[in-house]
């Protein structure tokens, strides 16, 4: 089960990390093949637009339409040529506004760029790259409506409204709507023919989990502001929002067990185990030169040894709903575990991690730490967190057992509630940190 969960995260992160030149474009200018222009097709597209395309009159447009109807009625009743000329000018303004708005959006394409990972409480730039494929006509006055919503909130919304009983539906809907953010961003300058532009939206996620960032619609009031033309973008990207970092207190531990002679960490250091051979650089000690390998390759090579860690910790996080019944306390647990894992990794003292009954995962590089933060981002309280398929041994603080694995033989860090609001981390029964 852990392997499947990790593979899903790998697929999702690889999909989000698509290079810029391979990202998909969207918009009116991304047609695979050019269709033959016909006046009948053009007129039919004005009468019956494509799905998601709307042309609505604005307040000045409604006033203009009402004024045209009044002048038209007066012209037919009085048979005045001046009124008929005035009516034709007003109707021509409406028709010209619709045609120019169609030409303004024609040939424009865009693509959404979201650079993961996102973090709760931290500003993230959502970029929209623009291109104008028209040869002669520039594009003016575009605005873009962005949206971001939590996938977990919408899943809970659907389940509560359809299958829930004795629930406040209005409260559930209000909570789901509060988890969605929308903002309209305008194009600051014109988009020249064959030119490129960029629109940025500053997003600050408010909760962890899976987030869907989408371009809801693209619109324009060009040229006169009588008509508002909107295009449904249907462009979205899913990403993961990591927990927010929190402040915590560290406590000295009386005695931590360590392996004889220290543990070997797969990074460069001054230990006794040979890690790799590399080219000689200025400043390296001559004692580190590997003369036999240098003679075989014809290049001066030096030995690079593995680092020797002073003490290492294995982190085990339980999400038992019976232990973590308070929502705010559980969110503090997730943020505390993420912050503590990052701090231990920076100092080289994080050996491995485990979530509930999943197979413990060793932490050797930054990618492993990112996978752990991804798991914490989507973690939820579950019933019967421990599975019978995984062997367990020993007792930990907070009434928990300790997983048996090669990375969790000693110095296992567990978490338990500290009062009604706090969270404490224990190592072999001793409090190591609290938040």
Structure description:
The chain is an alpha+beta fold. The protein has a seven-stranded mixed beta sheet, covered by helices on one side. Strands 1, 3, 5, 6, 8 and 9 form a six-stranded mixed beta sheet that branches. It folds into three domains: 22-29 and 36-242, Immunoglobulin-like (Sandwich); 264-309, no CATH class; 311-434, no CATH class. The chain contains nine helices and 20 strands. It starts with a helix and ends with a strand. The radius of gyration is 31 Å and the shape is elongated. It has helices at 2-16, 39-47, 59-78, 81-105, 151-163, 169-178, 291-297, 327-346, 366-377, and strands at residues 53-57, 108-114, 118-119, 124-132, 142-150, 180-186, 196-203, 209-220, 227-242, 249-250, 263-279, 301-309, 313-317, 350-355, 361-362, 392-396, 400-403, 412-418, 422-427, 430-434.
Key terms for this structure?
435 residues, alpha+beta, Immunoglobulin-like, 3 domains, 7-stranded mixed sheet, 6-stranded mixed sheet, 20 strands, 30% helix
